[in-house]
Amino acid sequence: MTKTTIEWADEVWNPVTGCSKVSEGCRHCYAERVAGRFWGERKFTDVRVHPERLEDPLHWRKPRRVFVNSMSDLFHHDVPFHFVYRVWRTAALANQHTFMILTKRPDRMLEFSHWMAGGDDISVAEWPQNVWLGVSVETQKEADKRVPLLLETPAAVRFVSCEPLLGPVRLGEWLPSYDPTQHYARPEHEGKLDWVIAGGESGPGARPCHPDWARGLRDACLASNVPFFFKQWGEWLPISEMGEEEQDHLYEPALERYPDSTRECKVPCRAIGFDGGEHWHLTNGFPSFLTFQVGKKRAGRDLNGRTWEEFPR
After folding, report:
1. Rounded to the nearest 10 degrees, what angle do helices 81-93 and 106-116 cross at?
2. CATH classification of 2-235+300-307, choosing from 3.20.20, 2.20.25, 3.30.2310, 2.60.40?
3. Of 71, 146, 270, 292, whose CA is between 20 and 30 Å from 186?
4. Where are the alpha helices (DSSP H) in 263-305?
5. What share of the chain is helix, strand, coil (3-state, %, to 5)?
6. Which DSSP category does 216 fall into?
């Protein structure tokens, strides 16, 4: 049993370890950093399965949310389907837990669902109801590729993790149409996303997250009655999320360093535009935001003054 600091999970279970980079969100992979401290000469790209760990969740009595493979991707091409099936079998047997599987390879996840069904489509009713499937997306480009494949794959709950959030991501076409007067999602929109997680990047070299990117996802979820979970700002905290006292603490008088500011930052800071670039002027009609590198702990996870930690029912 491995406790975790990941806010939306209680435990991590790693029947597979090792992975390889597939997109920009992998650049500063936290799992690779962890592996580098403990794996010795073994490379992180050395993907291994661990049959000896398969039965671990069967011994956990208290129900919990389990993040599957925080140190890998279950649908990596080096993981054979017969081993993925054994992971599935454990999850189905340990039905007191909820198993959350996140992948950047939804094409292979969809292929596995056909493999399970012998080449035919498999219905949600035949899928373990305690297994939630999600895709990780960092930009609109990755969302456009990965979310449709996720929605083709049967699952009791489908979710998207927009972390690290590196640009504006619009999920509207994959969210259910909600009727606020009746308090329900319209049935013709079943098969849409059930949950959205968002968060900024942390660790060495972390890139800042524009507050409008996070707010846009939250507002879309509110309009669709979809649970929204804001995990973290990461290393960088936007000035709009600070009180006046905290802002004053981070500045000292200066005129020469920044042409658009009368004060100088005491810690590293950037002005980020809505397109993800760094600017000191209006970008696409949106003002750039000053953001400060204060560290993950200090940046926290409040968005507009509150914590968003909603889960699917």
Report:
1. 80
2. 3.20.20
3. 146
4. 296-299
5. 30, 25, 45
6. H
pLDDT tens across the length of the chain (313 residues): 567 889 999 999 999 999 999 999 999 999 999 999 999 999 999 999 999 999 999 999 999 999 999 999 999 999 999 999 999 999 999 999 999 999 999 999 999 999 987 755 555 556 789 999 999 999 999 999 999 999 999 999 999 999 999 999 999 999 998 666 666 555 444 679 999 999 999 999 999 998 999 999 999 999 999 999 999 999 999 888 988 877 777 765 333 344 454 455 667 777 666 555 554 443 444 456 778 888 999 999 999 999 999 999 8
213: tokens are: 């990117």
Do 112 and 84 touch, CB atoms closer than 8 A? yes
Can you spell out the DSSP letters for 88-129?
HHHHHH-TTSEEEEEES-HHHHHHHHHHHTTTS---GGGS-T
Query: Among 241, 151, 173, 230, which residue's Cα sits nearest to residue 197?
Result: 230
The structural domains of the chain, with segments of one domain joined by +, span: 2-235+300-307
* Residues paired with 12 in a beta bridge: 2, 67
- Do strands 48-49 and 65-68 pair parallel, antiparallel, or not at all (unpaired)? unpaired
Task: Please name which of 74, 88, 98 lies closest in space to residue 126, comparing C-alpha atoms.
Answer: 88
b (16+ CB within 10 A) / e for 53-71: bbebbeebeeebbbbbbbb
Say if residues 165 and 213 touch (Cβ distance below 8 Å). yes
Q: How many residues does the chain have?
A: 313
